[in-house]
Specification:
Blueprint (H helix, E strand, L loop, with lengths): L19 H24 L3 E6 L8 E2 L4 E6 L19 E3 L14 E2 L2 H4 E8 L12 E7 L11 E14 L10 E8 L3 H9 L3 E6 L7
Antiparallel strand pairs: 1-3, 2-4, 4-5, 6-9, 7-8, 7-10, 8-9
Length: 214
């Protein structure tokens, strides 16, 4: 006897549908998202470095309290600045001026400056050049006083000394006027500088690289 399946209600299974163009579109979207992620991740490669909390002067002893951490994008230049792992427990010595809020250059600090440099205050008789300010380098020139109260030819006493501060005659920090200047000089030169001061030699400060006129 023949069996009639027409009224059994059975349905043929659906055939799976696949559109190549749809798959290609999904692939392109995925690649685009991945590309954006890679670009953003690369652009967000930041490092933690230190920023000066306040202005730093040559000779200052630097500790963690003087610094603020900041995340910045420096790329290959990151090694030029003071990182969060670069400050030892004993602190560092500032070797050149750093402005408030400035990234601290690695070259502006050191661990042995306190042994190599000494702070000396020298009197100056003439008005200072405008370029002479804290953190700048100057050449110390001295003209030896002769017996008849005249002065001999000037010569370089200390080259490339670092200015710590400029002090007016009344003890207030000055702005280019005559008075005294605190400088950092090599310890080997301290005796010679103090001798010139004690002998009342004429001491002049000239911006490093300039030529003093006698």
């Amino acid at each position: 006897m023949a069996i009639d399946n027409a009224g059994s209600g059975g349905r043929a299974p659906r055939r799976w549908w696949f559109d190549v163009r749809f798959a290609i579109g999904l692939g392109l979207v995925a690649l685009s998202v991945a590309g954006v992620f890679v670009v953003v991740s690369a652009a967000d490669h930041t490092v933690l470095v230190y920023v000066a909390r306040t202005a730093l002067s040559p000779g200052d002893r630097l500790s963690g309290g003087d610094l603020v951490r900041q995340s910045v994008q420096l790329g290959e230049a990151s090694s030029r600045y003071l990182g969060i792992r670069d400050v030892p427990a004993s602190g560092l010595i500032v070797t050149r001026a750093v402005a408030e809020g400035e990234l601290v250059p690695a070259s502006a600090v050191g661990t042995s400056a306190s042994r190599r440099l000494a702070s000396v205050v020298v009197p100056v008789r003439q008005q200072l050049a405008k370029a002479i300010d804290a953190g700048e380098q100057v050449d110390l020139w001295a003209a030896e006083q002769t017996d008849d109260r005249d002065f001999g030819a000037p010569s370089v006493l200390v080259p490339a000394a670092q200015v710590v501060r400029v002090i007016a005659a009344d003890g207030i920090i000055a702005d280019g006027g005559a008075g005294s200047v605190e400088v950092l000089v090599p310890r080997a030169k301290v005796a010679r500088v103090l001798e010139a001061v004690a002998n009342d030699d004429a001491i002049s400060l000239v911006p490093a690289g300039a030529v003093a006129k006698g």
